[in-house]
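hey so i finaly got around to running the thing on endopeptidase La from Pseudokineococcus marinus. pasting the sequence first so u can double check i didnt mess up the copy paste, my clipboard has been acting weird all day
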Amino acid sequence: MGEDVSAVDRSDPDGAAGSEGGAERRRGPWRSAAGALGVCFAASLLLLSLLGAAGTPYAVEAPGPVLDVLGEGRDGEPLISVEGRETYPTEGSLDLLTVSTSGGPGRDVVLAQVVSAWLDPVEEALPVGRVFAPDQTREDVDEARQAQMSSSQQAATAAALRELDVPVDVRLRVSGAAGEELPEGLERGDVITAVDGRPAPTVDDLRAGLQEVEPGAEVRLGLERDGADLEVAVTTSRGDDGRTVLGVLLDPEVQVPFEVDISIDDVGGPSAGMVFALGLVDLLTPGSLTGGLHVAGTGTVSAEGAVGPIGGIRQKLVGASRAGAEVFLAPAVNCDEVVGHVPDGMRVVAVSSLEQARSALEELADGGGQELPGCREALAAAG
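ok and heres what it spat out for the 3d tokens, dont ask me to read them lol
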């Protein structure tokens, strides 16, 4: 019996057992393929989940908070206040603009954020190395930004008072390192007075002296340290723009005959300098500098009043537009990034100095300003 059944099972494909076995064999490849697809799908989901939770080597920039320097901060106190000198009422708004940066040291962004930024016409995903220096820690970043903000406030105060012909005394004090550590020979708190024997009472004088040598060359700096005068040899380095730099953060100490306080929290960097200076000029002069207009602006400012470049200007244009700004003051050196990205209904005026920015606002406040240069005109004039 056993042999007969065994013979049927192996040799009769039409028998019950053989028929069922044949159907099973015919469905087998399909079931295997479906199973493989299911495993691949599950694995893909798992991989995407892991990638979505893992950090990426990118930083994402987006429009940040907008603050009116003619108004009040979160604590209800004026952002700019003056004691010991007459001030005047203001009208309109004068907005400083910020960029919100996600990612960088200690704060990785995940793949989903990077992909979202790639698809967003406003946000921008950049390699971390383009935003932060190598080996920077989060503490380094925060310290540098606060030092830059403090320095920009001091420079803005000096620039505004010089614009108003108020005597000021500025000392260039070293507040920290632009990179990992200070160049050999320098210490925090040093006051720089000369470069290679030439007096350097201003940042512009210091920069001009440094450009006399190639990056990496040595310069001799005149210093004041702990009340004593001395001279030290310091090796320069190459800045991001190719210029010769010292690789230090400077905190200009401005001595003025009255008290100026610029109070702002949770914002770092130097890019609000021009707007701080304009706000101070407005407070210290009769009438409204903006003429009631809603103005926004960005740009560094030196103690001598030169307006310099900033980062994230496209995000700042969007932030200004969302806040309702009618006029946007842009550093002329950033104009190549502005053209083609100006929001509808906003007028951009290109400026290279605090004097130009002030004059532009006065013209606009009087209902004029039709001939003021925008970024297209500024680029054409630059050649």
